[in-house]
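quick one before i forget lol
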Amino acid sequence: MTQVATDSGRRGRGRPPRLSRERIVEGAVEVLLAEPAVSLTIKRVADVVGAAPMALYRYFPDRDALLQATADHVLEAMERAPIADGPWPDRLRAWMRAAQANLRPYPQLMPYMTTTRHPAWLPGLTRLREILTPAGLSAEDLALAVALISSTMLGHAVYEGYRRPDEEMTALLDELPGPDPTADALRPLLAGLPAAHARLYDTILDQTVTTVERLAGGAAVRDRRVVPPCG
C-alpha cells in the first residue's frame, strides 16, 4: 500500500520541513566555497540540498534573488567574527584582514553585496563605529573613514574576483612576440605581477589605516585649538 507523506505523517508532528529558505542559502554557500569561479545555478544548489530545482523556486523567484539572499547571509555571518582588543589602528587592521579573508571565496556575490537593500550591512557599520570611536573623529571624518574602509575592502575583493589568475599572466610571457622592444619591456612587469598581487592588500590596507590615522590626528589638533587656557 502506497503511503503519502503529510505534515503530521512521515515528517513527524512539529518537525520542520527538510527544505527551507535557510537550508537553500546554506547550500548556495557550500556550492560557492567548493567552486568559487564556477557560476552558481539553481540546479547546482538543488543537488546540494537534495531537492528538485523547481522546489527552490517556491522560496526564491530566480537566481538573482538567491544570490542576494546568500550575499546578505555572508555579510551577517562575517560581522559576527570576534576582534581582539588593542589600539584602534591594530583592531582596524585585524578587522579588515578578517573581512577580506571572508570575502575572498565569494566573487560572484560582490555585485549583490554592494547593492543590497537588506540591513545586513548594519552590523558592519556598527562594528566599524565601535572600532573607530577611540580615534575621536568628527561625524564628517567618521563617515569618510567608513566610506574609505568599505571601498578599500569591496574594491579589492571585486578586483581579486575578476582579474586574470597569476598563472595566466605568467603564461602571457610565452605569447609575447620577440624580439620586440615593447614586448621586452613588458616581460619584467608581467613576471612581477604574482608577487605584487601577494603584497597588494597589505599595501592598500596600510595606506587606508594611515589615512584614517591622519584624520584622527587632525581631529586631535582641532580639539586642542578649542580647549580654553587654564587659569
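fyi The chain has ten helices and no strands.
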